[in-house]
Amino acid sequence: MNHTWKVLKTEQEYKIALKRTIALFNADENTPAGDELDLLLLLVKDYEDRHYHIPDPDPIEVIKLRLEEKGLKQKDLEHIIGSKGYVSQVLSGKKELTLKMVKGLHKFLGISADILLADVK
Question: What is the pTM of this model?
Answer without folding.
Answer: 0.60
